[in-house]
Amino acid sequence: MNRRKFLNLVGGCCCSLLLPNCSTNEVTQRKQLILYPEPFINKQSELFYKNFLRRSKLSKDKNKISMMNNIAKRLIDNVNEYFIRIKKPNPTLDFKWEYNLIEDKQVNAFCAPGGKIAVYTGILEYTKNKDGLAAVMGHEIAHAVAKHSAERMSRTIAVEMGFGVADVFTGGIAGQTREAIGSYTGLDILDIAMLKSHNRNQESEADYMGLAFCSMSGYDLNESVRLWKRMNEKKGKKEPPQFLSTHPSSKTRIIQLRRWIPEVKKNFPLSRIS
Which residue range is the domain that position 213 belongs to? Predict the structure, then answer.
C-alpha cells in the first residue's frame, strides 16, 4: 500500500470515529469537532491558568493594570449584550472571568476557555492605547466565546486517535511514534492547544466578533487595522512578535477588517451599558 492510500484509509477511519462528535456551533454556525464536555475543558483551563500565574510575574504598574481592567469589564459586559442582540443563548454564562497583566517582554495575549485572560506587557508596545488593547482583548475573548481552544484540543486528540488507527495497519510502528509523543492528560492537551496556531476560519470569526464587542463597548474600530499594520512591520524581522505565531497576519486580514468595520458599526452600535 503506497503512502497516499494509507493516509486516505487512516483519515477515513478517523473521520468515521469522530463524526458523531461534530456539532454546529450556535455562535458561528460552523461545524466543530469537540471531543470534550465543556465543564471538563473549563476545569482544565482553571488548572492551566493557576499554573501559568504561579510561574509568571504579575505587573505592578497601576496605570496599565487599571486600563486593562476597565477594558476587560466593558468587553465582558458587552459579550452578554451581544448575544441579546443576535437573539442567541450566551455560552459564557458559566465562565469564571479572570484577567491579569503579566510583566513580560513577550508580545502576546490569550483568553483560555472559561474566560481566563492574560495580557503580556510586551504587547502594549504595539497596542499603543486603550483602543488598540481593546482590539487585542476583544479578539482573544472571541476565541474563548467561539470555543476555539476546545476545537484545537480535540484536533490534538484526533491526531492521537489517528496513530491508534494506524497501529492496525503498521503492526505497532505508529504506536512507537505515539509513545515518543507521550500519553497526554487533559491539562497537557490544553497546554499544547494554546500554543497551536489558529486556522483561518477561527481567526476570521474572532476578528468579526472582536470588532462587535469593541464597537458595543465604545472603542475605535479603526485601531484594529493600525494594530495589525504595526504587527506586520515586525513580521519579517528575525524575532517576529510571539502573537503572530498563533495569530497569522496578512494583507487580506487588514482588507477584511476594513470591509467589516462599517457593517459592525451599523449592526452593533454603542450599547446602553458602555
Answer: 38-149+196-267
> In sequence order, which residues have a C-beta less than 8 Å from that of residue 31 and are 6 or more positions away?
22, 23, 24, 25
Which backbone phi and psi does 207 adopt, to 5 degrees? -60, -50
How many domains in the chain? Answer: 1
Give the residue among 208, 250, 198, 200 at the shortest CA–CA distance from 229: 250
pLDDT 10s digits, 30-71: 776 677 788 888 998 999 999 999 999 999 999 999 999 999
**Across residues 115-141, what is the average pLDDT?**
97
Q: In sequence order, which residues have a C-beta less than 8 Å from that of residue 41 and are 6 or more positions away?
A: 113, 114, 149, 150, 153, 186, 190
Q: Which amino acid is at 177?
A: T
DSSP symbol at 57:
P
Single out the catalytic residue among 26, 81, 98, 140: 140
Beta-carbon count within 10 A of 259 CB: 9
Angle of CA points 12, 203, 85, to nearest 5° = 110
What one-letter code names the amino acid at 161?
M
pLDDT, position 252:
83
In a domain, 77, yes or no: yes
Q: Which residue, among 63, 188, 70, has the nearest Cα to 137 in the 3D structure?
A: 70
For residue 269, the one-letter residue type is P
| Distance of alpha carbon 257 from alpha carbon 9, whole angstroms | 40
Task: Tell whether 87 is covered by a domain.
Answer: yes
Verify whether residue 140 is a known catalytic residue: yes
Ranges of H-type helices in the chain: 3-18, 38-54, 62-86, 124-127, 130-145, 148-170, 173-181, 186-195, 200-217, 222-235, 242-246, 251-267
Rounded CA separation 7/143 (Å): 31
- In this structure, is residue 224 part of a structural domain? yes
The answer to whether residue 207 is domain-embedded is: yes
* Verdict on whether the full-model pTM lies above 0.90: no
